[in-house]
Amino acid sequence: MSASTQWAPPSVPADGWNNNQIAVGARTVFLWALGVLVGSWVFAIGLASSQSLGVFVSWLGSATATGLAIWAIVLGSIGVGRAAKLGGYRRGTALTGLLGGLGVLLIAPVVVLLGSLLLLG
């Protein structure tokens, strides 16, 4: 086999992150954000007998989910950059964290407002 046809592994970034664990972290944080958002809404609806506590739980869950979503977006964008350096390795995982974080960030205010209206209405 000639030297030009031999397979060469993708280049490893200088910091040694050759397995793109940041992409996995982005996806994990996104799933936590989604779980916190949905869980707080369900828990708030379960507290329908105590409306003010239900609204507080809904708002607290939304704030926590927003923070986690921002963290997922940051990790996802770093993971996409690393995937480009690694020949696309775990690019889909990083995009899941990035786009999922954006989705949670956009939907969190809607969920908290709907939860508040259902509890107070």
Automatic annotation (TrEMBL):
Entry keywords, A to Z: Membrane, Transmembrane, Transmembrane helix
Transmembrane segments: 29-50, 56-81, 93-120
The UniProt record lists the keyword Membrane: yes
Protein name: DUF4190 domain-containing protein
Species this chain originates from: Cryobacterium lactosi
